[in-house]
Amino acid sequence: MSFDYQIVVIGGGSGGLTVAAGAASFGAEVALVERQPELGGDCLHYGCMPSKALIQAAQEVHQVSLYKDLTTSDYDRLFISSMERVAQALKDVQEHDSKDRFLNLGIDLYEAEASFEDEHTLKVGEKTITAKRIVIATGSSPFIPPVDGIDTVEYLTNETIFSLKNRPKSMVVIGGGIIGLELSQAMSRLGIEVTVIEGSEQVLTNEDEEIAEIAQRNVSQELHILTGAKADFVEPSGNGIKVHYTKDGSENVLHAEQLLVATGRKPNIDRLELNRAHIKTEAGAVEVDRLLRTSQKHIYAVGDCNGSMPFTHVAGMEGKIAVSNAVLGLARKVSYERIPWVVYTTPEIYHLGFTEKEAREQHGDDLLTFKTKLSNNDRFVAERNTEGLVKVLTTNRGKIVGAHAIGAGSGEWMQEVGTVQSLNKKFQSISSVIHPYPARNNAVSQTADLYWREKLFGSRLNDVIKWYVRKWR
């Protein structure tokens, strides 16, 4: 049977673009289908890029506010300039994922919605195309919880918040996860009174508990956080919104000009007509095996749509594996054990592998935990940024199974631990690496030194060494 294309990629985000560019580079006939007017996906337009541009702008405003009392008009002006800065950053980055780049690779670009007709046929807008292999990379969109009255109010999500033109005086945020906390802190620093409603007993429920506690304590100094609270009902109120919530069995009401819903993401698969291609789903996502194949072995799914880890760098990694398997016929398996992520609050949070609770369940008494407070590190003392912690979890022999930190720039200097893990080296090997003084990553080497203190100086071997030194040296 002949096909129009060897590979059709549905979705022009990180995962889809990686697959399309990689497949074309290997000489495959490729089509890329994207329903949005621009390539780049959610990360570029609604997620990573605009939020980081906003966070940086808000951080600079916050720094100014420490030395100067800002007026209402100052905050109004700075809010507008921050949003303009976000828009300009998106415009600059968009050039990296320009359509011309992919057209020049020989990729056919279809700017339309795609849906399956059968396991090899797609309806793309008004056209029908066939493919020998297909890669689904349709990403995700904001999950809107079933809160009564939510359809009666105008609420913001991470896809719409960056379009705000004027500074609201107050905002309620439903959700204390990564998106909710990052945007809440940024908005607070731009002069908005922010209240976060989180159903769990702590924010950032996917983080190590000790790290999340420090984060909550720090962020609570800048905004209001209500944990163990449930949003029950929302309704319009004048020029704003009323949010009725329950906490500790008591009913309460919050008034705010704006409501931000940040309760996670859901895979974009509803319009694909997956049933026509007999593609199985699980928990609202495309079901894949470790080769990233769906129940139809010639159809793959990468990125948020397969329900794995909702991060751009994960989608890119999965895209590379899909190229290897779909185009070259390899059998590379996906693994998520060595994938870090960063929460870009101030201070930043670094996460790799198991939390301490998860690691304890997995490794029991074989688990070793090494911790260094940033108050014990000279660089952080000098910078007056001593609120923070490094925590590394290893097996008894030093295999890294988890690494966490909260501190200024931790997303950068903690990656040394991730690199060592990826190279299959033991954590204690960092102790022999010379770190420039007083670099921030000295906190990592200090923590690695603790391994030797645990294994050497606290062991019977130390008694032997002491005997040798006294007797023979």
Report on this model:
The chain has 473 residues and is α/β, with parallel strands linked by helices. The chain is built from 14 helices and 23 strands. It has helices at residues 14-25, 41-45, 48-65, 72-94, 99-103, 178-189, 209-219, 312-328, 356-363, 378-383, 410-413, 415-422, 442-457, 460-472, and strands at residues 5-10, 30-33, 108-110, 114-118, 121-124, 127-136, 140-142, 170-174, 193-198, 224-227, 229-237, 240-247, 250-256, 258-261, 265-267, 281-282, 285-286, 299-301, 340-343, 348-353, 368-373, 389-394, 400-407. Strands 1, 2, 3, 4, 5, 6 and 18 form a seven-stranded mixed β-sheet that branches. Strands 19-20-23-22-21 form a five-stranded antiparallel β-sheet, with helices on both faces. The longest helix has 23 residues, at 72-94. The chain is globular and about 85 Å long. The model has no long low-confidence stretch (mean pLDDT 94).
Could you write a compact summary of the structure shown?
This protein is of the alpha/beta class and 473 residues long. The chain has helices spanning 14-25, 41-45, 48-65, 72-94, 99-103, 178-189, 209-219, 312-328, 356-363, 378-383, 410-413, 415-422, 442-457, 460-472; strands at 5-10, 30-33, 108-110, 114-118, 121-124, 127-136, 140-142, 170-174, 193-198, 224-227, 229-237, 240-247, 250-256, 258-261, 265-267, 281-282, 285-286, 299-301, 340-343, 348-353, 368-373, 389-394, 400-407.
